[in-house]
Amino acid sequence: MIPIRKFYTILLLFLMIYMINLSLKADDGYRLWLKYDKIENEAIRESYKKLIQKTFLIGNSSVMQVVENELSMALHGLLGQPLLHNNDLTQNTLIIALENDLPSAILDREKYATSLTGDNFSDQGFVIRTIRKSAVTYTVITARGESGLLYGVFHFIRLLQTCQDIDNLNIKSSPKIKHRVLNHWDNLDRTVERGYSGFSLWDWQKLPDYIHSYYIDYARANASVGINGTVLNNVNASPQILTPLYLKKVAALADVFRPYGIKVYLSIRFSAPIDIGGLKRADPLDSEVRQWWADKAAEIYELIPNFGGFLVKANSEGQPGPQDYGRTHADGANMLAEALKPHGGVVMWRAFVYDNKVKEDRAKQAYNEFVLLDGQFNDNVLVQVKNGPIDFQPREPFHPLFGATPKTSLMMEFQITQEYLGFSTHLVYLGTLFKEVLDADTYVRDMGSTVAKVIDGSLHGHSISGIAGVANTGTDRNWTGHIFAQANWYAYGRLAWDHTLTAEEIARDWIKMTLSRDDDIVNPILEMMMESRENTVNYMTPLGLHHIMGWDHHYGPAPWIKDKPRDDWTSVYYHRANEEGIGFDRTETGSNAVSLYAKPVRQKFSSLETCPDEYLLWFHHLDWTYVMRSGNTLWDELCYRYYDGAERVTRMKEAWNDLQDKIDDEIYNHVKQMMIIHEKEAIWWRNACVLYFQTFSGLPIPTDLVRPDKSLEYYMNLSFPFAPK
Amino acid sequence: MIPIRKFYTILLLFLMIYMINLSLKADDGYRLWLKYDKIENEAIRESYKKLIQKTFLIGNSSVMQVVENELSMALHGLLGQPLLHNNDLTQNTLIIALENDLPSAILDREKYATSLTGDNFSDQGFVIRTIRKSAVTYTVITARGESGLLYGVFHFIRLLQTCQDIDNLNIKSSPKIKHRVLNHWDNLDRTVERGYSGFSLWDWQKLPDYIHSYYIDYARANASVGINGTVLNNVNASPQILTPLYLKKVAALADVFRPYGIKVYLSIRFSAPIDIGGLKRADPLDSEVRQWWADKAAEIYELIPNFGGFLVKANSEGQPGPQDYGRTHADGANMLAEALKPHGGVVMWRAFVYDNKVKEDRAKQAYNEFVLLDGQFNDNVLVQVKNGPIDFQPREPFHPLFGATPKTSLMMEFQITQEYLGFSTHLVYLGTLFKEVLDADTYVRDMGSTVAKVIDGSLHGHSISGIAGVANTGTDRNWTGHIFAQANWYAYGRLAWDHTLTAEEIARDWIKMTLSRDDDIVNPILEMMMESRENTVNYMTPLGLHHIMGWDHHYGPAPWIKDKPRDDWTSVYYHRANEEGIGFDRTETGSNAVSLYAKPVRQKFSSLETCPDEYLLWFHHLDWTYVMRSGNTLWDELCYRYYDGAERVTRMKEAWNDLQDKIDDEIYNHVKQMMIIHEKEAIWWRNACVLYFQTFSGLPIPTDLVRPDKSLEYYMNLSFPFAPK
After folding, report:
1. CA distance A241 to A267
2. Which of A148, A162, A236, A278 counts the most CB atoms within 10 A of its CB?
3. Do the Cβ atoms of B18 and A69 come within 8 Å?
4. Given an 8 Å threshold on Cβ–Cβ distance, is A259 in contact with B11?
5. Radius of gyration of chain A (CA)
6. A210 to chain B: nearest residue by CA?
């Protein structure tokens, strides 16, 4: 029998949630950060109203209608005032117009023309400026292209949402990276590879005729942070996506996204000419094959005039590719690039390759293949490189390819979905992870040659540039499973636009837009978010450990994984724990992967004097008794890190519970329940890893730490046959 | 290039939908029929308020808290008035109390005690009665059991929602069937077999810790129509559901559903003792196996004290079962029944069996197996029989097992999900289908031996009875994909409670609760719904045709399916079209399946004089030139039916479009888009079937009908590799 008390606890829990349905305050998270609830502070609200008495919006294209709609919603919601059109400019007016359409009677167009040029200032960039003429104030949002106005208006709305001073605006903003895309690993059966928030947003069965309203909200959300492209389908691509049946469906989505400045891209299967084209081969140097792709590209552009291009995973993890015909990645990419070139499309060719037959350290394989191809890629090819050399681990050093191919445009591939960071049940803010990678210095052209400068094209003078984030969206009502996972989508977009922003300012904006504008609430939440990724590294893979998660589904800890079809799909390959010590020696005495970095980086990582603790076991195999900077032995330090990571989750949980009644009830309860899972799983990681590594170290867990209450055997016997993967 | 005009059409469409997000009127369908929007008619509202000045609610169990919550929401919403507790009974009061708790000072308890007994009056039944004492009016809802109060309150709320007169209530209602369950064909990976509304509601990965608020709304919806059980997982069951890991998750759901009077059941895999129990065999007569199931039942009841029982698909379509060990279905069912018996659970054993090796007409196989077992099943076994002898076709005659096993409790299995009726994109109201089956007369005990009386146990005097509906729910925001598919869930529940209701009155209630209370709107919608299933039969499978849908996924028409691993998985097996004629001869000259029915039924179906057109080709193979009652030849009649079915969908679409601005915008647009798909697919069915059958008849399509604009070859070449299945 369930004890009566348990019944009542459950009852109370659900009645609490249940009452949410009664409350008008209940927020299911669907609106993301685009919440236009009335600004509570009347003084601020009135000051805004005074400055936006009227709106003067020029143009009636589909983009401009979107701009007008969004602004109308925002002003209606935030200020409780409708959008009042007026063009006589006698009152304080918000002016939204392309540079060429600015009312010259009032404004000095030349001045704007100047301000909209300069260092790589893009058509997508915008200027927001306060102009005073006599007693009238004009807030001017202008740009060279319409999408610039769209981004400018979203920026302006954000200022209102976060209660910024808008009295004297002088903002100039232009995206540093040209192609800012989401990669959806969505299959045509609506399952999502590494999806933890329900299933694919794309309802293929009902497309092209049925348009879900959430498609539009998806576009709004992306546009609001400057994302301008979306790859709809999984890199492990079905060839069916290129059939006429599916291209019509893709076109329907492209039509919805177009006014939001979002281009659609598709992942293609390299063998499509065979799979659906009836050809015998897919050799990229075969003229029939080349013609097939050229025809296919023409067919696509007929349906989707602004189609973005192809994303390709080839000769990687079993996918077909040019090497099947003795050709190179460059041969494959260039064939597709030629097919897309007449239409303005690009190829995003993934560098995530590692060969079954190559015995080399996996951390070196992509580098070894692609460095040799530098200079061979067409000018509409971007080579897409994951942030680290293994696979989206909680922490990796930056990928050695960054900076190593000066003649090749490299784009970044980040993973927003938390494949290795607790799925959608752990609260982990990834803004700090993204920033750590973007700010990492490759030193390939002296100090300051950051990864960000490699991918924005500025370091080596490339005219195209790109960044991709593997999406964490799904059919869950709140889009991302965990409401805090929305912040990772948000942060990805903001950094894709401007990598000089700090993770903290982005988090602060997100909290204010999503949860509360009250500093007493913002600050503790900000603190949680800012430390969350470091905690997670600590309870999962401290000190440079990596790839010790559950087999296949990657759920939970499993450092004991061994004897699999490939060594580099096991855990023991990566941690290399034995009775002496632990860690992967990637210095000269080991795989020498460290040699792939520029000299200052190589030196820093190679030497135990300078190698940061964070990367210690990534690059070095060390004795259990090795003495760390902290004075602890490696074994003790490892234990302390694991315990500290988990302990901080408990504290995070408590800090969250302190917010009861201070934020929306439904969001509060949602996160409260998630934190229970998060804490359980952090302790699970800690216990399983410490107990497992202890079988090698043979050393006791420091006495000031509590003993795991379950045995290693218990953890090793856990099995999750239906964990999402 | 897409023509500019097309761009603008799309733009307008999406801006239209988009504006919905601005409007407070927008209804995404999530609330189902439990909408408590304020009653527009003030006179009615005031009359209700006058009668419900106060509420006197006795009891504070979890059920009573649910009752109070629901009532509070309803009164707040419908009347704009909070629930005002009062127990001095000096004002007009709504009294909700168990019979024993009724305030005796005011009410004659004896009288109620009498009214709550009688013909099979159940603990779940309720009485609602208006009592006047001096100037005070009491509206009394009472019952013997708490769930009766729950159902009584939902009934009362429905009266308000549909604006019924509540001045002089004298309602007595008790469910005619004991176990009223939904069958979810939901897999543990959240895919749903034959699911067309997203994915499984059960978020197994996050259970037991994370409780989605929609679990509660699911329970509310079911309770509101009297559904009192839910089988959580697919009949093609994973054995994992019975592992401790999953049972904890199941228990969490059971805890949520319990206060709503809903029991949880599980589908089990017959080989579970081998799959997860480590046994070598699953022989139901093996004592080790019997002990394993007894222990498993005890383990389940420890976690879930009110667990409902097991649903079993055995020796059917590849599933393991007792016949693997030379035992009978009764042996298998009884073993499980014994395991559950001490805890009060039941076994629902499916009769949907047909053997690969048996060459007999599939329509006879289940009958042949189960009739022989009559009298052998334990008293807590229900044999679950699909409504027709094949498989949930748009129309089938009732299953010949109904009435043929007087010593066995048979339960009905209806399919709410539209596997064969247009998935979730066709507007097909199934209330009429359900009623047709329930009202069908088996004649096994003279006239009036309806199927309904077989399954409610009254015909043969059984004390347990059951009905199952294969659920159409999923993660789509509106639960069922098509908002009109909600009506099928609703109608199933209402009929499960009271099979004497008409399909029309149920539809009328549903429309009023879901779409509009305005008769000018209700009536045209009612008309659509009432004719919708007949239309669908006509454009899919008129005149008794059946099982001619797409292979495997069952999407769209494919009467040409042949040469598959089993004959009875093909279309040609069922329609038997040749140059002479069409139809399955199930009379004495053919398979003689008609002989399985009682004499009057047998005679009626056997004779061409009396066999209804609806079942003609189900029972007879007839020449193309056979002259129908209508005077048309069979070929012409077939064409006219196909065209009429499709034509009526077009008219339905137009009728819907006439409702613009009369109902909620979001719902209007949702259905409008669905109707476009519905019409396309109705024409697709019509064209493909007529063209295909024409290859046999060699006769022209009647000249007053338009020619299909595509060739048969076109239709035969269509392929849908990712259609849901």
Report:
1. 8
2. A148
3. yes
4. yes
5. 26
6. B673
Q: Is the CB of residue B414 less than 8 Å from the CB of residue B467? A: yes
Tokens of B623: 């020449």
Extended beta strands in B405-559, E state: 410-415, 466-470
Q: Determine the Cα–Cα distance for residues A294 and A378; give it in Å rounded to an integer.
A: 16
**Residues of B in Cβ contact (< 8 Å) with A723:** 205
Two tokens at B526? 């009612």
Distance between CA A679 and CA A664 in Å, rounded? 22
State how far the Cα of B587 lies from the Cα of B361, in Å rounded to an integer.
12
Nearest CA in chain A to B214: A18
Of B271, B404, B410, nearest to B335 by C-alpha is: B271
Kindly indicate the confidence band of residue B113, based on its pLDDT and cuts at 50, 70 and 90: low
Whether A4-173 and A179-514 share one fold: the answer is no
Helix count and strand count (H, E) for chain A: 22, 15
Contact B73 A15 (CB under 8 A): no
**CB distance A72–B674 less than 8 Å?**
no
- Taking CA atoms, A154 is separated from A33, A70, A462, in Å, by 11, 8, 28
| pLDDT, tens only, A345-390 | 999 999 999 876 778 899 999 999 999 999 999 999 999 999 999 9
| C-alpha–C-alpha distance, residues A370 and B376, integer Å | 72
CB atoms within 10 A of CB B504: 15
Whether B681 is catalytic: no
Q: Determine the distance in angstroms separating the CA of B128 from the nearest CA of chain A, rounded to an integer.
A: 26
Please indicate whether, in this complex, the C-beta atoms of B259 and A20 are within 8 angstroms of each other.
no
The predicted structure's pLDDT at residue B6? 52
Find the catalytic residue in B396, B419, B647, B679.
B419
- The alpha carbon of A138 is separated from its chain's Cα centroid by a whole number of angstroms, namely 36
* pLDDT score of A653 more than 90: yes
Cβ pair A510, A487 in contact under 8 A: yes
- Nearest alpha carbon to residue A423 among A352, A512, A488: A488
d(CA B396, CA A346): 55
Tokens representing residue B656 in the block: 């819907």
Q: In CATH, what is the architecture of B179-514?
A: Alpha-Beta Barrel (3.20)
| Cβ-based neighbour number of residue B83 at 10 Å | 17
Do A18 and B216 lie within an 8 Å CB cutoff? yes
Q: How many residues are recorded in chain B?
A: 725
Alpha-carbon gap, residue B184 to B192, rounded angstroms = 8
| Residue among A305, A673, A719 whose CB faces B1 most closely | A305
Q: Chain B partners of A260 at a C-beta cutoff of 8 Å? A: none
With 0-12 / 13-18 / 19 or more C-beta atoms within 10 angstroms meaning exposed / middle / buried, residue A57 is buried
- Rounded to the nearest 10 degrees, the angle between the axes of helix B213-225 and helix A4-20 is 90
Closest chain B C-alpha to A420 CA, distance in angstroms: 16
* Rounded mean pLDDT, A645-662: 97
Identify the CA nearest to A645 among candidates A694, A681, A691, A618: A681
CATH architecture of A538-584+621-716: Alpha-Beta Complex (3.90)
The owner of tokens 């050695």 is: A400
ipTM: 0.94
- B58's tokens: 């006795």
Q: Considering CB atoms only, which of B14, B21, B305 is closest to A1?
A: B305
The whole-number pLDDT of residue A376 equals: 98
The closest of B482, B483, B532 to B504, measured between CA atoms, is: B532
- Residue A164 three-state SS: coil
CATH topology of domain B4-173: Chitobiase; domain 2 (3.30.379)
Q: Nearest CA to CA, how far is A328 from chain B (Å)?
A: 32
| pTM for the whole structure | 0.96
Domain ranges of chain A: 4-173, 179-514, 538-584+621-716
Q: Rounded distance, CA A546 to CA A537, Å? A: 9
> Is residue B419 among the annotated active site residues?
yes
